Amino acid sequence: MSPTRKNLVICHLYPELMNMYGDRGNVIALARRIAWHGMECRVEGASIGAVDMAGFDIVFLGGGQDREQKQICVDLKDAKGGRLRDAVEAGVPFLAICGGYQLLGKHYRTASGQVMDGVGILDCWTDAGETRLIGNVVLESRISGSPRTVVGFENHSGKTFLGEMAEPFGRVLNGFGNNGEDRLEGAVYKNTIGTYLHGSLLPKNPWLADWLIDRALQRKYGEQLSSRLDDSIENMAHEAAIKRVSRRTV
Ligand code: GLN
Question: What is the separation of C-alpha 189 from the centre of its chain, rounded to a whole number of angstroms?
Fold first, then answer.
């Protein structure tokens, strides 16, 4: 990397195991947008085993089935948890989707009663429900200060409930969200977001990708993201997703 250009390093956790419904597309979207904003970007995978977790500017963890969650949960909590918690406290932006989101909480209890301990970065817990919560989702999120819509796709049996330390990522306009009961979706702590929204999420919600990049830039360089990209195509995809959901519900 050139010493004069700003650069951001993305850590993609367990890329070969935690990648449902194209969650990897979120990392591609981040890397592309960082480059389009005129910066350099490097993506580093962090699999099971000893990995130097220092020096990351954005962390991403995708979704996975119970089987993959079981494969990674001990490594995530015991081998990487300490460094991840430090990074989160230091303000490193972290996006976790579905099965990854569940493991950032306190625990995930499967339908067979098996309990996987989470990292405890997010004050939430998840118990498997009896039905799957599936479909397109539209949220209203206020994490950027003003209300913004978020579109995505959910498919989970886990029902997540938030403790006092976690703010919801958004309020559900269409779909089930965390548990199908309280109209809340996802959890936020500092610059960490857990959400059930696959999609891929970031290509269809470019403002959210830039929110993560902005947080990383402010932490590393003390500067806000000032450049703006032409998101007309991304925003058309966003609007089309909203229209599809509202057509189905009228
Ligand atoms: N196994 C989890 C559930 O169904 C997560 C699934 C996912 O990541 N899509 O609740």
Answer: 12
235 Cβ inside 6 Å of ligand 1: no
In CATH, which of 1.20.810.10, 2.40.128.50, 3.40.50.880, 2.60.120.380 is domain 7-249?
3.40.50.880
CA distance 214 to 224: 6
Kindly report the pTM of this predicted structure: 0.96
CB atoms within 10 A of CB 168: 22
> In DSSP terms, which residues pair with 61 in a beta bridge?
13, 96
Listed by start position, the domains of the chain span 7-249
Q: Is 80 in the pocket of ligand 1 (CB under 6 A)?
A: no
Nearby residues of 86 by Cβ (< 8 Å), 6 or more positions away: none
Q: Which two tokens stand for residue 63?
A: 């979704």
> For 53-88, how does the pLDDT look when each residue is reduced to its tens digit (9 = 90+)?
789 999 999 999 999 999 999 999 999 999 999 999
**Which tokens belong to 173?**
């306009």
| Phi, then psi, of 45 in degrees rounded to 5 | -80, 145
| Number of the ligand 1 atom closest to the C-alpha atom of 62 | 8
Give the model's pLDDT for residue 227: 96
Displacement of CA 225 from its chain's centroid (Å)? 20
Dmax over CA atoms of the chain, in Å, equals 55
Per-residue pLDDT at 50 exceeds 90: no
Say how many C-beta atoms besides its own lie within 10 A of residue 114's C-beta. 11
User: pLDDT band at residue 199, thresholds of 50, 70 and 90?
Assistant: confident
